[in-house]
């Protein structure tokens, strides 16, 4: 029975695609031809909602299930063909062989545990807490042909008019407002086993660039990223700073990042806990200029913390409360060098000069 279904599946699917759906249940199935104009007008835009809900043979029945699966495959095939055509044109018009293999327009997907290297490999256990990407084979050929020096860095960038509209995510413990506006990020290579025209990125980079699975971006081998001299990181919570040897932990975890991008939010793991840090300042060697990207691997870089994000927010809330109390009190008098109390709130006020409220 299974072999029989396999033999008839392909011609039957072609017949179904060319015919008007005959069941009311197929009307609700996602259709490529029903996608918004702004999506279908651009061959590089893939609408993730076209994959949901996931078709079910039991729920939908055989014919709607087969139709939906075929449409999903068609959507992906059209996207892959658009990317392949662009890369073929770029290769054909490149000035040199190295240029032809140092850049690709790719479809991106997030890394997951299936990419975790075996025990004993340096990046083992750091798929989510590092900047390593799985890239197509052509980038390895570019490295060997150009004799690029380590660390091998790759710039990932959104493309105006090509990459789908940015995913707007609210600031939370995983990223902050600045990281959600980045258009470029830099990272290293985990391996070069990705299929042609595909790349797999760490999840934090997806969030920083506002990407969805199967969005289209440009990736190129870069050799101009300057070495870093100093970086300032803001922890999202004070719990990391309270670790007794947090500076040593920082130095150890930074080894899993070949480079850093100013404004990004990067994760570290320590004793089963995941901590997030904003890259708030990045300086290059030797002049200490502020740069958008810098190498940290094989560099003598000074890393320091600024006040944790949680404590900054708590201080702002406390200051807001003080301001509210100052505006609401009937009278409040304090003399320089002393402290005063609100007649209404009886809370300690931080005052350094004579103030009279009426």
Structure description:
The chain is α+β, with helices and mostly antiparallel strands and 358 residues long. It has 9 helices and 14 strands. It has helices at residues 2-18, 37-40, 57-60, 62-93, 97-101, 137-146, 203-209, 246-254, 309-328; strands spanning 103-110, 132-136, 153-157, 184-194, 198-201, 215-222, 228-235, 259-261, 265-270, 273-284, 293-295, 302-305, 340-341, 348-349. The chain has a 6-stranded mixed beta sheet. The chain has a 4-stranded mixed beta sheet with strand order 9-10-7-12. A hairpin with a 6-residue loop joins strand 13 (340-341) and strand 14 (348-349). It is globular and about 60 Å long. The N and C termini lie far apart (89 Å).
Architecture blueprint of SSEs:
Layout lengths: L1 H17 L18 H4 L16 H4 L1 H32 L3 H5 L1 E8 L21 E5 H10 L6 E5 L26 E11 L3 E4 L1 H7 L5 E8 L5 E8 L10 H9 L4 E3 L3 E6 L2 E12 L8 E3 L6 E4 L3 H20 L11 E2 L6 E2 L9
Parallel strand pairs: 1-5, 2-4, 7-12
Antiparallel strand pairs: 1-6, 3-4, 3-6, 7-10, 8-11, 9-10, 13-14
Helix pairs in contact: 1-4
Compute the average pLDDT. 78
Query: What is the spatial order of strands in the main beta sheet?
Result: 2-4-3-6-1-5
Query: In percent, how much strand structure appears in the residues?
Result: 15-25%
Q: What's the overall geometry?
A: globular
> What is the helix content?
25-40%
Record field, number of beta strands: 14
Structural category is alpha+beta
The largest sheet is: 6 strands, mixed
Q: What string, H for helix and E for strand, traces the elements in order?
A: HHHHHEEHEEEHEEHEEEEEHEE
- Runs in which pLDDT lies below 50 for 5 or more consecutive residues are 8-40, 328-358
Based on CA atoms alone, the radius of gyration comes out at: 27 Å
- Please tally the helical runs, counting DSSP H or I stretches of 4 or more residues: 9
Our measurement of the CA-to-CA distance between the termini, rounded to an integer number of angstroms, reads 89 Å
């Amino acid at each position: 029975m299974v072999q029989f279904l396999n033999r008839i599946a392909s011609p039957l699917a072609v017949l179904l695609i060319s015919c008007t759906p005959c069941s009311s249940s197929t009307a609700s199935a996602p259709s490529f031809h029903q996608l918004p104009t702004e999506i279908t007008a651009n061959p590089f835009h893939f609408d993730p909602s076209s994959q949901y809900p996931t078709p079910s043979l039991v729920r939908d029945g055989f014919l709607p299930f087969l139709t939906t699966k075929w449409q999903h495959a068609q959507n992906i095939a059209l996207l892959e063909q658009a990317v392949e055509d662009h890369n073929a044109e770029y290769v054909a018009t490149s000035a040199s062989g190295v240029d032809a293999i140092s850049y690709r327009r790719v479809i991106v997907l997030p890394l997951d545990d299936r990419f975790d290297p075996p025990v004993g490999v340096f990046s083992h256990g750091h798929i989510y807490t590092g900047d390593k990407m799985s890239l197509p084979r052509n980038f390895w050929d570019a490295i060997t042909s150009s004799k690029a020096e380590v660390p091998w860095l790759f710039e990932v960038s959104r493309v105006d008019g090509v990459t789908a509209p940015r995913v707007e995510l609210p600031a939370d413990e995983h990223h902050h407002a600045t990281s959600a506006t980045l258009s470029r990020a830099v990272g290293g290579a985990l391996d070069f086993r990705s299929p042609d025209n595909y790349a797999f990125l760490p999840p934090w980079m997806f969030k920083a660039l506002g990407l969805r699975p199967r969005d289209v971006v440009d990736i190129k081998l870069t050799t101009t990223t300057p070495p870093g001299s100093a970086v300032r990181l803001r922890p999202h919570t004070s719990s990391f700073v309270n670790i007794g040897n947090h500076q040593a932990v920082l130095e150890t975890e930074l080894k899993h990042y070949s480079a850093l991008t100013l404004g990004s939010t990067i994760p570290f793991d320590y004793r089963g806990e995941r901590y997030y840090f904003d890259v708030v300042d990045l300086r290059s060697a030797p002049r200490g200029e502020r740069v958008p990207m810098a190498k940290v691997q094989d560099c003598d870089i000074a890393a320091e913390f600024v006040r944790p994000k949680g404590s900054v927010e708590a201080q702002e809330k406390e200051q807001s409360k003080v301001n509210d109390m100052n505006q609401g009190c009937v009278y409040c008098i304090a003399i320089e060098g002393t402290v005063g109390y609100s007649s209404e709130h009886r809370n300690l006020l931080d005052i350094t000069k004579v103030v009279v409220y009426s």
